[in-house]
Amino acid sequence: MARRLLKQGGMKLCLLPSLAILVFSSACNAPRTEPPSPKPAVSVAPVTPSTLRPAAAPVPAAPVVNAVTLTGGSTAVAAHAGAASALSPRQVAESSLKVKRFVVAAGVKDREPLVSRDPLPADGSAIYAFVELANPLGESENVRITFERHGSSERVGEVTLPVPGNTARHRTWAFTRFIRTAGVWDAVLWSENGTELGRTSFEIKPA
After folding, report:
1. CA dihedral over 186, 191, 196, 199, signed as positive or negative
2. How far is Cα 172 from Cα 143, in angstroms, rounded to an integer?
3. d(Cα 177, Cα 128) in Å, to the nearest integer?
4. What is the pLDDT of residues 60-109, one digit of tens each?
5. pTM, whole model, 2 decimals?
6. How far apart are CA 95 and CA 163, in angstroms?
7. What is the pLDDT of residues 44-53, one digit of tens each?
8. CATH of 98-205, one of 2.60.40.1930, 2.40.160.20, 3.20.20.370, 2.60.40.10
9. Strands 127-135, 120-121: parallel, antiparallel or unpaired by DSSP?
10. What is the 3-state secondary structure (H, E, C) of the chain?
11. In the chain, where are the structural domains located?
């Protein structure tokens, strides 16, 4: 093997060229190992009962609200969800009275009305509303009679009449002297609970 001597700093170095080349070549071809890169830390929050949210409860369907207009102008509201309405017994109760006759007359004689086809005068004369009723199964009850002018809020009368129970025929009447305006009027028969039982029209002529 050839040797090469170098003199450096008062010292002699002996180099072996082939060995140096071998060592350098081995060092170049050696695989380069690098430390693995650290993985990012992932923080996981512990699951506790306080962090759990219960599933939302189903919202019940809103009840359907129906407005029921009773005869006589009063209004009752029923709330139901596909079931029967929730009206009170007084609101749904029907009168047991049956109307056989309801007429307007100029007078009453022998418990029968004096009916005329002519218009009645607006001079303060008595105007009668005569009614024949049947109440065979019900208890005693009151009825009310009013006189109302068409096209206005004018109302007179408000007469209350008793009707006995367990009777197949009962005749009674009310009258007023306060109709002083010409036009078309109604005599209206009401039950005790506010149900309209009957209505009949008549004409008033100027005095």
Report:
1. negative
2. 10
3. 9
4. 444 333 322 223 332 222 222 232 233 334 333 567 899 999 999 999 99
5. 0.55
6. 12
7. 455 444 444 5
8. 2.60.40.10
9. unpaired
10. CCCEEEEECCEEEEECHHHHHHHHHHHHHCCCCCCCCCCCCCCCCCCCHHHCCCCCCCCCCCCEEEEEECCCCCEEEEEECCCCCCCCHHHHCCCCCEEEEEEEECCEECCEECCCCCCEECCCCCEEEEEEEEECCCCCEEEEEEEEECCCCCEEEEEEEEECCCEEEEEEEEEECCCCCCEEEEEEEEECCCCEEEEEEEEEECC
11. 98-205
* Chain position carrying tokens 């709330």: 79
Residues in the chain: 207
Alpha-carbon distance of 6 to 15, in angstroms, equals: 8
